[in-house]
Amino acid sequence: MSILITGGAGFIGSHLVEELIKRDEEIVVLDDLSSGKIENIPESDKVIFIEGSITDRKLLRELFSFYNFSSVFHLAAVPSVVKSVENPVETHHVNCDGTIYLLEEIKSTDAVFVFASSAAVYGDYLKNPKKEDMPVNPLTPYAVDKYASERYTLNSYTLYGTKSVALRFFNVYGERQDPSSPYSGVISIFIDRIKRFMKGEKTEIIIYGDGKQTRDFIYVKDVVKAMLLVYKNEKAYGNVFNVGTGSSASLLELLEILKDITGKIPPVKFAPERKGDIKHSCADISKIEEIGFRPDYSLKEGLKKLLKYE
Ligand code: NAD
Ligand code: UD1
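That is the input. Now the predicted structure with uridine-diphosphate-N-acetylglucosamine docked in place:
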């Protein structure tokens, strides 16, 4: 039996592939390489790579009839909030329809389904930390699609008995996070600019808004730890869990930590706040802690590891 990882050529997906190889699992990666890279996938005879889209129902049907998947980790998505604001139709097709297409294939199997949802579903409630039973307020097409996919995921448990779990990732950072787009994760962009600055390049850091917005930044290895904790845990099925550290930092604090580690940072420029941007985001992680999760890295520890300043 093998494990299907959609989006396995991406940042978070490739770390999951790496960990599952260590556990001697047979893995199939389905990815259209729209934001992922083939080089992200570790070379191993344990991994089969299929280039294709989760929106291709014929391909999904063929995959599910050929392989007997024991689990499906669904990470494929257009992960940029800004892109969803600019192209809501295209991103909806991938971020929501793609999830339903996968669940339709899984319905007649015994596979576990783990869905990569997002803290974005909470929107901008002033109340922090965010708890799973709080009302949601999805403010962007990305967040609406993540919430809808989450509901399809949880309904598949109640309606069809699928062993499904939705994980609300907070802001993930780590190795292989691509900094090349202006929509990339903020830590990957800031670190890229710092490295360029250290090489003597003329560059700057841009902060959208006043820099006081906060995020619960979680190191990718802790996110993988959470995924591997839930997929074989009966108690997790039919549930949604926050995956964060339980503490948050503002962008200004993030820059202070980066300066502390590296010694210097490029000049900082302020630009207008982005549309749909969330002001404060911090996870209450007591629910996932109850089933045994504990993050291994604080923001400073994760950044030091990422920057190889340990
Ligand atoms: P990523 O862009 O590195 O990974 C997404 C992968 O999905 C890429 O490899 C991409 O090529 C692939 N993909 C996109 N559309 C596809 C399609 N139609 N068919 C097949 N593959 C497709 O992004 P990431 O940060 O690794 O995000 C992984 C998942 O985690 C996404 O679902 C994202 O929404 C979610 N998430 C990420 C964060 C974060 O902070 N990075 C936070 C919350 C949730
Ligand atoms: C991120 C994820 C999204 C996930 C969500 C969960 C990415 C690209 N997006 O969205 O998939 O669902 O977390 O919480 O990983 N910023 C700057 N300067 C920059 C870049 C960003 O000031 O150069 C600001 C943004 O305006 C925002 C903050 O940094 O206020 C975080 O931005 P970003 O890393 O894009 O993450 P989210 O929008 O929180």
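The CA atoms of residues 77 and 94 lie 6 Å apart.
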